[in-house]
What we know:
The structure holds 3 protein chains of 3 kinds. Chain A is α+β, with helices and mostly antiparallel strands. Chain A is built from 13 helices and 12 strands. Helices cover 28% and strands 20% of the residues of chain A. In chain C, strand 32 (686-698) and strand 33 form a beta hairpin. Chain C starts with 26 loop residues before the first helix and ends in a 12-residue tail after the last helix. Chains A and C meet through helix 13 of A and strand 1, helix 3, helix 8, strand 34 and helix 20 of C.
Amino acid sequence: MAIIRDIMPAFELYQPANTDDALSLLSRHGKEAWAMAGGLDTFDWLKDRIKRPSVVVDLSQIKELTGVRPMGGGVEIGALTTLTEVVRNPTVKEKFGLLSQAAELVASPQIRNQGTLGGNVSQDARCWYYRGGWKCYRAGGNICFADTPTAINREHAILGADRCVAVNPSDTAPALIALDAQMVIRNAKGERVVNAEDYFIGPGTDIMRMTVLRPGDLLTAIRIPATWAGTHFYFEKIRDRQVWDFPLVNIASAAVFNGDQIERIRIAVNGVAAHPVRLKQVEDAVTGKPRNAATADMAGQLAVQGAEPLRYNGYKVPLMRNLVKRSIRGVEEAKWA
Amino acid sequence: MGIVEWATSPWGQDVPIHISFLLIWVAAIAGLLFLIVHAIWARYFARKEEFAGATPPQVAARIPAEVPRHSLAARMFHWIMAAAMFALLITAFLPRIGVQFAWVTYHWIAGIVLTASILFHIVHATFWMDRWSIWPDKADIEDATRRFKRAIGQAAPPPRRFAKYPLENKMYHGVIVLAGLSAVLTGVFMMFRVRTGFLPRNPYLFGDMTWGLMYVLHGLAGVGLIALIMVHVYFAIRPEKLVITKSMIFGTLAREHYLEHHDPQRWAVEGSQSARASSAD
Amino acid sequence: MAKAPDNPLPSHPRYKLIGKDYTTPDLIAKVTGRAKYAEDYRADGMLFAKLLLSPVPHGHVRNIDASEALKMPGVKAILTVDDMPKPADAMTDLGQRIPANPLGERGLTNDPVYQGEPILAVCAVDEYTAAEAIEKIKLDIERLPHVVDPLVSLRPGGANARVEGNVWLRPTAPPGQPAPPPKVTEVKWTDADFAEYKDGKLPMGKATDPEWSYGDVDGGFKNAALVLDETFVTPNTSHQTLETRTAMAYWQNGKVFVHVSTQSTAQTAPAIARWLGLLEPNGQPDLSKVVVISEYTGGGFGSKITSAISAIIPCILSKKVGAPVMMRISREEEHYIGRARPSLHGRVKVGFTKEGKVTAVDMFVVMDNGPYDPQGDANQSGRMLSLMYQPPAMRWRGITVLTNTPPRVSQSQPGGFQGIALMEPILAKASRKLGVDQVAIHRINAPVGKAPIGPPGPNGKRLYVTSAYVQEALDRGVEQFEWEKRKALPKRSGTKARGIGVATSCFVGGSVGFDGLCVIKPDGRIYIQSGIGNLGTASVSDTHRVTAELLGVPWEKCEITWGSTARNLPWSCPSGGSQTTHAHTRAAYAVALDAKDKLTQIAAKDLGGKPEDYEVANERVFRKGGGAGMSLAQAAKRAIELGGIYDGHELPKGINKMTVTSAQALMGQGLLAVARDTMPRDGQTHSYVAGFAEVEVDLETGKYRILDYLAVADVGTIIHPRALGGQVLGRSMLGIGHAIGQKWVYDQHYGLPLAKRFHHNKPPTILDAPEKMQWAALDIPDPETPIGARGIGEPPVGAGCMAILNALSDALGDEIFRRAPVTADMILASLEAGKPATEGLTAHI
């Protein structure tokens, strides 16, 4: 079969108006069905005819999955809420500015207008071999083309690689982990809630998925508890271009300082592994320590322990180290005379 | 749906990538069917084994109460190999049937254990054991013919007693050697595709087609082993074979079992003439 | 030495239109979305074509089984290379023979030499059907050895990109004769040649391009106070025009009408005719058989100078199926067939006096040529370096290596950019080593006036340029950029470093010898015919302002006709190499003179006296110093009555055949002015830019921001300030893209591209533009052209790229990068390692 790309093949399109209908469609069509939120991840796959679902369930008409609602001092954000709405929401901005910052750095304004929070955290890997339609482990094959002696892997993983070295490209994911968010998942059988941290899975667990979602599952909402509301946040995204780019590495942290001391902190990094990495060890090591350069240095060093760079991504080790440092001590801004 | 899963290579060519994982179920069901059929046959249709002649009393008298069958080294090999094999099958196939866990490291470590134990076994069996005792000989073939004829009602003299291993045992060993070596040899090369820490990673050691065939062979051997091991375990726990299973634990065979099933001429114990030499006539 | 004429800044008091902003005739349609690009056209019964691209980087198609595809309802035809015209000799309009290149592109192929090369096209009722049909086609391809890295190909045992070999040999021309056609051969260097590779230094094995030199190179090095020997690698960058090279075609009465995206309207017709094999018996393209329609073009940058050979696919399909065929090119396809700039691996040894004056240059380049026609970038890099930095002695050597990557073609400042990119880091490094200011080292080496360029010609003498005011541009920049003030600022603070950089850049800025054509009609308006392509530079209308200016006609009374060769266009230059502004202000000047001649003659005939007694201004021709006269409308009416030369019944000799045909179609409608630019020019026209940049680098992340950028252009007389500013800043951004991130990425094992989409090969976005960005132009007329205007499309590229990189090395020192683009990862890894950490010589990383 000859290959042609960049033209979408035909499929059955369903546009359910409520979650129950969507779930029943997904359950009825099982593996043949593709759940589509904003379409930013989906259309690439479809246009290149690499993923060929026979049924696409477009979730964009489900109003009940959009919006930000207060919930016990925190918020519940419908999975279909656009990133722009997340950015603009005053409650999110006031209490969970970390998420606003992260969401605002996703891709470009047009993409944020269309892309959803649920889609952003559930998006597939952006490894150019995988996305190019190369039949790698993640695509059901028996090789990682990005981890070969001649591979170009500047944007790939330094941590947690297991055959596949793709990274999770989401900007909002580490912010949600730092905020200790919970993901509400529904399927035809019912609802379950998982911690943001456990929502993402590595290739060791399942090399063909990025999240715990299985066919028939739908991420319906994201709940952010009050735990870290209004605390000290740090988010930074390093990317090649200032707009319309995925992170090389990004970092999100939420911290409570007591005077000079770090009382509690949560830190998560993305772009370094197939799933956003929560730095539990670093958090434990710095809790109770003074917030100063020495603690930041120690945290940075600890964070990158065990990192295994590939041929072209060695820079990610100092980059992650420095971002972790900054998440604790902040950026030393320049003062030009 | 074939037995091989094909994929499009980066050059747009069709290359095999692995077996169809449906074969896991095919192998499991085939193994199970064999067990059921055998169990029914053994329960309702099997005749009692008859052997030609009897062991001369003076020979029998020399046989000790516990006949040594497997040396400690041989037993250790067997159980280590068995453990590795189970680890390999579990780590290989559970994730394929939906039990997700990070299996690769366990798999290749178990693979190394298996490979090492097989290497040990080859050396040990070649130089320290009666290396021919596990391979079928002329008498095995003749006796098998006799048994077959008798089973289908034709006239044939009763078969002789076995040497150290019954023919079925030898054949099983042969098949296991084939499947095991296929899995091990392909597996060793496949380790160049994962991070082991000691092998230089080079997934481009072979071309796409060669690798694909290697994965297919590995997979076929793997699913074959599912069936083979089911059968093996089944026989190990069959009541009439328990005594043999015990010998793999304790190293010895009860004298009665020995005398009933084995021919001291063909399997000499306690300093008798070598079984092979005496079985030549 | 030429002296700058009096500078009429700020606003050319003597001009009414030249130097003034105005609303271009295409603007409203563009901003309202009513402009129609090739893809926007529809024709009755139109079918669609899709391409099947080669999956392998190098191979041979043994068999195509399209039976299943052709059985599908709605599938009309397939087209393979067997349907395409064979390469044949052709003639230019000047009668020069273009020998057929047996290794050239034919649009489709059975011997693909890069992944993505079109093998066949399927024509169907819609694109979905065509795509489905393509998936049903079975290709039997024999894969051949491939190579995507020129140095890998030069290694002993390295693969060849083509069966014939891996290097283009370009024989030198015997005296007085044209050079024999280039041919492909096999060249391998030795392991010893590669000894320095591991140190990141470009190996210098056998160079096969014709070497040139002048002056005493060895002596220059001997007398140098400082000698630097540096390797630098420039990126391969796709042109990435926003409009892909879509084409739609249909035939009527044996004539093909083709809607294309092209940089040049008039020049595209003969190109299409040649590709289609529509030739006259004498071998010249038969323009009566081709109509090219292209009113708007969404960018070219050198990749669509005469559109694209892929445009003949819908032409031939349309003939085959007897219906119009639209072939929309997807972004994926555009990546493959959309052309790119060839990278140069360069090694340049430069001697400097202690004041920073260059004493000698020894330059060696390896060009990644792609698989097709040999490109001029390698040689041009040396020529432009020789002009920009005026070395008194220089040697140039090069080799043109074929690779299995998409075809290359000129891209804004082709070769010039690479030459500037190879030299500028050396100049910046020398300024630090010698303690000479960056501007000063550029100034001391800058060309002045009729500065020499390139190797000596057959007469042993070097050519020279028409003018150069680079020192003036630097001086203006120093002042406007507050260079000295910025220089005094500290370089480090907190986790940030800052730096300032300057770079100079140059390129060809004009050609001569093209035609102008206009009609003054009895309604008193001037109808100007423009064969210039509307590629976004505004030259399609800008240049004709000269005619209006000279005839004293308000712009509102000028109608420009452009965009279709069926609309009687004159022979115009190809809009490539920034030649249009120069060529067509001259042609417009020439045609204005012709109109003036005819007007004054008519006036003299009717009102008495001699033509010399009359002048033309304010829409009238009248007796000098006052008295009798007539309006242009009246003169136009008289021209029709007079006929002959006045209304186009008689045409002058020397104008191009296309112009003749067009003029004949317009005759009798008014006063017809037509002329070829035959005005003299002493020297080769070039333009220049000095770029100034300031950057701030985050030392903890490697990210840098461009705080400020200023480009000062030495481009002659300013014709249209807003368009000039657009060109200067736009092309600066093109160069800045080369500095900060734009590139190709290839997997060498499979020889396949990984970065095929915008978010992978990363052209710069608006937010990557410098936070502050300004331009200025000297507005000093070029002394060798009547209006004094030169082209500007090219030189901002090199200045934009290298001012940024020089600012980076000013901030971080010399041990950070050895190639462009310079990205955060490269900076951070090098800072961490204390030396350039990114692989220097591997291609496409």
